[in-house]
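#struct-help
A.M.: can someone run this one for me? Single chain, 324 residues.
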Amino acid sequence: MESKLNHQAIDAYAKAFSKKICQSFFYQNSHISGQEILNLSKFKQTNLIVLKNLFRKWKKENAKLQSPYFDYHNEEVKKAMKDFMNTLSRHISIKKEHFEPLLRESIKDSILLVFSPYDFFSKEINQRDDSRISLNDLKDLKKYIKINDFLLDGLIEKFKSLKLGVAFNDEAFELFNEVCGQAEEQPEDVQPYLDAFSEELSLSMNDVYLESGESKLTVEEVPVGSLNDKLKQKEQISLADRLSKGSGKSIKQQLTLNQRFMFVNELFDGNQKNFLMAVEQVDALESYEEAYSHIKKTYVAKYEWDLETEEVQEFMELVGKRFS
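D.P.: on it. Structure tokens below:
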């Protein structure tokens, strides 16, 4: 599945959000401290991600400390460096010109965590300065993540079960995909977080996700006969192929995390409860024909599904596998 996030709009929102917050805070302050960062935004997750990104930058700078004259790998030296970091963390002091880009980056990360946790954690794993990620790195990340953290918990448990202290990024990413495929817990409802962001600066689903740009079928625009014909035509083209690859598993068992997000946001107007109810209803039916009829009557018209889109076709593919 290709991401449907509107990255250009998210960048613009993060820029406007950070500018507004910084103008308000730095109007009477020359620097911002760690405690002030924790209380900066009403959306507390963003504040924590600011600290996460700040300390990642510090670790990156610290990693550059190399010398032919001193042993930075000595245990005593490493302990002293850790103590130094702990002391430094209690004395954060950042000017506006350095803080605003950090906040902007953190707002974008926060939006990813809420609306596409798969993309957020993939970024955390793959876009690292080091080619490896350790169990301690994941545990450190856990300190800052309070939303959709079940995915991070799953990856930590994977590392523990395999007795991995450290893994190359591509290996860790494969393990993360396994976690996503096996996860039974659902991503959190995005509406409360839309409201939380909007307390600072208005944010809607249309700001976060791209529009398809294609016209959608509506009951008023499409005669019943035409709608039936188009649905049947779509099914005839791909049904044999789908059934040849059928799994017999329920739709819920087949769903990946990416698919959950795609279907909820693109087919069910962001309503996770309605999506889960639909999956349960379809899973409970007796045959593909019965499921096909139910979907046509219940969801195509209600949600104005465009039958040409990847989302509808992928959903129907799972339905075909369910009854094969």
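A.M.: thanks! Residues 213-225, 234-247 have pLDDT under 50 and may be disordered.
D.P.: also worth noting: Residues 216-322 form one domain.
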